[in-house]
Nitroreductase (Bradyrhizobium erythrophlei), 205 residues
Amino acid sequence: MNTSVIEAIERQKTTNLYDASKSIPDDQVRELVRLATFSPTAFHLQNWRFIAVRSPEAKARLRAVAADQPKVTEAAVTFIVVGELAVADVMADRLAGSVAAGFMPVEMVPGWEAAAKSLYFGKPQIQRDEAIRSATFGASGLIRAAQAMGLGTTPMIGFDPVGVSREFSLSDNEVPALLVAVGYPTEANWPQKPRRPISDVLAFA
Ligand SMILES: Cc1cc2nc3c(=O)[nH]c(=O)nc-3n(C[C@H](O)[C@H](O)[C@H](O)COP(=O)(O)O)c2cc1C
């Protein structure tokens, strides 16, 4: 049992109030995203992108389409976690590293492509579900990485997806799935909220 991982899970808490005077250097932003990309995705699609909104101008633009939530401008950085609509065409590219590393036989790639095509082709709802799922796993990894660095985080769905797509030039095949604010919490934040009892949320079958 890795107690440090369990302790990190047990400490999960969303930050509401940030110290707006504290910033995060570029290298740390890169490291957060590097760690987030270890999160799993279907077929190893890695169909995500992370936009680190940090300049005062960009933060103000994001806050204007994010229900005017103060944490968007007060956190050191707010990531727009973008999911890419799932398609089979990108598979060879996304698997190229595993083939080059020598453990994935190149002959396997067409099989994965065919499976992804039958799952996603002509099925916009399922393509979008996968975009949201991948981005959510990525956001979760980002949150855990930030927590391990002693930073506070806020996942957010309080935003206008059309406005975010417009302001940050997302492509037609991209969905803004979540915002994740990251920064230094103030002392005034609430403690962790109690959880529903396990008996209410666990079923054995
Ligand atoms: C998908 C999702 C969307 C959320 N959206 C917002 C939001 O827009 N603004 C906000 O202040 N908190 C938001 N939260 C934070 C939740 O309110 C918070 O996680 C919840 O109250 C549980 O608190 P805890 O994370 O401290 O345990 C969101 C959380 C999730 C998972």
Summary: Residues 10-84+133-184 form a domain with the NADH Oxidase fold (CATH 3.40.109.10).
